[in-house]
Structure prediction request, 57 residues.
Amino acid sequence: MKFTVLIVLATALLLTGCAPEVGSKKWCEQLENKPKGDWSANEAKDFAKHCIFHADE
Prediction:
């Protein structure tokens, strides 16, 4: 059981490490190449905030 939990956690950690940080230049470029119909509502909002309007805090 512990081994299964360890494998699941390791897999989750590896998968989250593959995606660029939201708002980064690489993330913006990745979304620009993704079909607009495949964007989620959160992706569209974050794209507008970070890639179009460059909301710096």
User: Anything to note?
Assistant: The mean pLDDT is 87. The chain is about 65% helix and 0% strand.
